[in-house]
């Protein structure tokens, strides 16, 4: 079966996502976890240290200015599930407006970012990377804020890690995820409806009101 962007979106809509064993493996397999990681958009936890970093504003935040570089950064690790086939599919989805990235810059250097796919009111987070302390946390903070402001209702993290759990991510059973996904796909949200807000104080205020 030849993977296409449309086939990939159909897979996400049915609750499964692709992975490869490693970057050099040409094969792709589908994953449908028994328990799914999700980030409640009204429960993103900003620690005191992260709030301090956000107020200090050591980074610049952009949206969709370096999508491929973000995917490259996410794949640049000893073990990765992003092979050439998956990379090409994400590139194609980005070109048609279905995949997006938030980038974190330190001057001219891309030091962090997160990317994912959007359908309806669901954001399917794929991966993130960090080359500076707190860069990926900053990216997630701005992403969650942006998703909330754009009308999204589901942030799928696929799996849960200690890092994500510390920020508020939880696991839910497959059946509960399928129900949440079905509802989210009926929501008319638009990732590009508004610009990303880079005012850390406004972000922190909104987070305090929703958490």
Radius of gyration: 16 Å
Q: Would you tell me which CATH topology applies? A: Aminopeptidase
| Overall pLDDT metric | 91
What global shape is seen?
A: globular
Order of helices and strands: HEEEHEHHEEEHEHEHH
Low-confidence stretches: none
Q: Strand pairing plus helix content: what structural class?
A: alpha+beta
What share of the residues does DSSP label as strand, in percent? Answer: 15-25%
In short:
This protein is of the alpha+beta class.
Describe this structure as you would to a colleague.
With 211 residues, this protein is α+β, with helices and mostly antiparallel strands. The radius of gyration is 16 Å and the shape is globular. It contains eight helices and nine strands. It starts with a helix and ends with a helix. It has one domain (5-210): Aminopeptidase (3-Layer(aba) Sandwich), CATH 3.40.630. It is 39% helix and 24% strand. It has helices at residues 5-13, 48-56, 67-75, 84-95, 135-150, 162-166, 174-184, 200-210, and strands at 17-19, 29-31, 35-38, 60-63, 99-106, 109-119, 122-130, 154-158, 170-173. The longest helix is centred in the last third of the chain and has 16 residues, at 135-150. The chain has a seven-stranded mixed beta sheet, sandwiched between helices. Strands 1-2 form a two-stranded antiparallel ribbon.
Q: Which labels suit this protein?
A:
single chain, about 210 residues, alpha+beta, Aminopeptidase, seven-stranded mixed beta sheet, two-stranded antiparallel sheet, 9 strands, about 25% strand, globular
């Amino acid at each position: 079966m030849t993977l296409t962007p449309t086939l990939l979106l159909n897979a996400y809509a049915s609750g499964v996502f692709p992975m490869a064993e490693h970057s050099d493996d040409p094969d792709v397999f589908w994953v449908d976890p028994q328990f799914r990681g999700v980030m409640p958009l009204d429960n993103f936890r900003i620690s005191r240290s992260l709030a301090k970093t956000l107020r200090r504003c050591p980074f610049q935040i952009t949206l969709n200015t370096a999508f491929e570089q973000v995917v490259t950064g996410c794949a640049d690790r000893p073990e990765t599930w992003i092979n050439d086939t998956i990379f090409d599919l994400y590139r194609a989805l980005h070109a048609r407006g279905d995949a997006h990235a938030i980038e974190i810059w330190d001057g001219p250097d891309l030091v962090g970012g997160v990317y994912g796919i959007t359908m309806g009111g669901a954001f399917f987070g794929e991966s993130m990377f960090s080359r500076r302390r707190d860069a990926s946390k900053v990216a997630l903070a701005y992403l969650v804020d942006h998703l909330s402001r754009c009308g999204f209702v589901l942030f799928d993290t696929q799996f849960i890690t200690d890092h994500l759990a510390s920020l508020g991510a939880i696991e839910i059973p497959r059946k509960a995820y399928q129900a949440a996904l079905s509802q989210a796909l009926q929501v008319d949200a638009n990732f590009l409806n508004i610009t990303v807000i880079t005012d850390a104080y406004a972000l922190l205020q909104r987070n305090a009101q929703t958490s």
